[in-house]
Amino acid sequence: MAHAATAHPGAHRLTRARNPMPTWVREALHERGLLPAYEARPPYQRNDYLGWITGAKQTATQHKRLAQMLDELAGGTHYMRMAWRPAASKQKG
């Protein structure tokens, strides 16, 4: 794992490789109308989901993981089977 401070002085974050979104994952998000829910998740969650799904060796496992991600996005309360909720909005009314 590379340390971001090497590339950008003053940065103190570890970085991970970004996982590209396969076409079939994007299509599934569109079919279920969940692309906005996916894009609303923090970048680390989006990246983790993609790496987890595409990292499976068997196609059946990839599809099972995709189904879990879609269900979690639809419900809006879980991330990788852990309870999750979006950060409170910082907008002032």
How many distinct beta strands? 4
Oligomer: single chain
- Cα(first) to Cα(last) distance is 41 Å
Poorly predicted ranges: 1-6
Strand order of the largest sheet: 1-2
Helix content: 40-55%
| Biggest pleated-sheet summary | 2 strands, antiparallel
* C-alpha-based Rg, rounded: 15 Å
> Which whole number gives the mean pLDDT?
87
> By helix and strand content, what is the structural category?
mainly alpha
Tally the helices.
5
Measured by DSSP, the beta-strand proportion falls in 5-15%
Query: H/E order of the elements?
Result: EHEHHHHEE
Which of globular, elongated, flat, extended, rod-shaped describes the shape? globular
Structure description:
With 93 residues, the chain is mainly alpha-helical. The chain has a domain at 19-81. 52% of the residues lie in helices and 9% in strands. The chain has helices at 4-7, 23-31, 35-40, 43-54, 59-75, and strands spanning 2-3, 14-15, 78-79, 82-83. The strands form two sheets. A two-stranded antiparallel ribbon has the order 1-2. Strands 3-4 form a two-stranded antiparallel ribbon. β3 (78-79) and β4 form a beta hairpin. α4 (43-54) runs antiparallel to α5 (59-75). The radius of gyration is 15 Å and the shape is globular. The N and C termini lie far apart (41 Å).
